[in-house]
Give the backbone structure.
Amino acid sequence: MNNLYPFVLEVFSNLNEKILIVGISTKKNNELYFNMLKNRFKNWKLKESAKNESFLIDYFLSKELTKKTPKNIIALGASFKTELKEGCSGGVIGDPHEESRSISESTEKLDNGLILKGLPGGPGIVLSGTFKEAEAIISSALTFDKSNSIKMMKKISQVARELEISHLIAVNDGSGYTDGVVLSLSPNEINIVSF
């Protein structure tokens, strides 16, 4: 797949909570969309009743993230940090034009041709590559403790480069016992951003 443009964006909720957004676009200039996301999340507040429910954190984050997503945004993910007493949550990734659902351990081809691979609790990746490459990348990430997310993302980018993956995004949960981190990789750039 040519003409893909990964991006990373930091936005803030109305309680000034940071949300890291990562995606892949078929257009180079997405400033209007980025401004729309910044304004949308400025008014977003996670419902109090959802703050300690792993599934609900991801559900509401995904719903807000994928509202009115332009067709040129073909993969989208986010990491969100909030207080969570047990487990981990606050990470979503996939095709923003498909129905949101919890990630499974299976590898799947998205409708747009990209490959999605993830694990509950993270990490999750979307890449232009093969099932085998996605599984190799996730396997390499599992050599690190999930609380060491930056090292995990560095390993993901290293293995992706070794496999000659041209475009990839990755997300780790931002709440609970994990550190929120996102990664975007293109032929000319690797961008890792954390809380």
Q: What stands out?
A: The longest helix spans residues 149-162. Residues 5-194 form one domain. The longest strand covers residues 5-12. DSSP finds four helices and twelve strands in the chain.
